[in-house]
Amino acid sequence: MNTLPALPPLRRRLGNTFFSLALLSYGAVLGGSLYQLIAEVPNWATPDVPRALIAYQNFFRVSHAGYFFQTLMPLALLSLGAATALLWPQAGPLRRGLLLLAGILLNELFTVAYFMPRNVVLFLTPLDDTPDVTINTFAREWQLANYLRLALSGLVMLSFLKAHRLLDAPPQPAPDAAPLPELRPTLTY
Fold first, then answer.
1. pLDDT by 10s per residue, the chain, length 189
2. What's the domain of life for this entry (predicted)?
3. Are 90 and 5 in contact (CB under 8 A)?
């Protein structure tokens, strides 16, 4: 049986609160990514990608999806980092917390290194001077790589849910704690 050292109640509550905030933030990011895949991408991944992307850019003049993701991903990372620090003595969930941090960071590094250059070309700059071949190639690469990013995000979410279930387990006494005395009365005949 896995036993977790007992934490002070306030520290445990704060750690669980930060972990829940990270879970909700990351869940919203995953939901936003799925929304993009289902509702937005089909609108610009047409046979005439350059013209469709111009219409897409015109629709998102004031705000774009980047603002959503750029707000929630740092919130998820910071909340998970705070939760991991607060729940440090809990070995099992802590290891999952570190794996989750690594998964989120890997996802973010992939996004910054691979997607951001394509996002700038496809969504943020005027497409007038960009050759259609470049636009079509970037759009196809963006779509294919987005499936990989969604798969990674899904794995991170599954780990989040498993770690959350472990955190919800009641605290167990430390393995070196003295056994509790028997509370049943001794019957004599």
1. 455 567 788 888 998 899 999 999 999 999 999 999 999 999 998 889 999 999 999 998 888 888 999 999 999 999 988 988 888 777 566 666 677 888 899 999 999 999 999 999 999 999 988 999 999 999 999 999 999 999 999 999 998 888 877 776 665 555 665 665 666 666 677
2. Bacteria
3. yes
Give the Å distances, CA to CA, from 79 to 89, 95, 178, 179: 17, 16, 35, 36
Distance CA 167, CA 181 (A): 27
What the block records as the tokens of 161 is 């849910």
HSE of 44 in the Cβ direction (CA atoms, 13 Å)?
A: 23
> Which sign, positive or negative, has the C-alpha torsion 116, 33, 165, 167?
positive
102-131 b/e with 16+ CB inside 10 Å = b? ebbeebeeebeebbeebbebbbeeebeeee
Q: DSSP assignment of 2-47, as one string?
A: -------HHHHHHHHHHHHHHHHHHHHHHHHHHHIIIIIHHHHSSS
Cα-based distances in Å from 96 to 67, 74, 111, 122: 28, 19, 22, 36
Element (H, E) at 64: none
This prediction has a pTM of 0.79
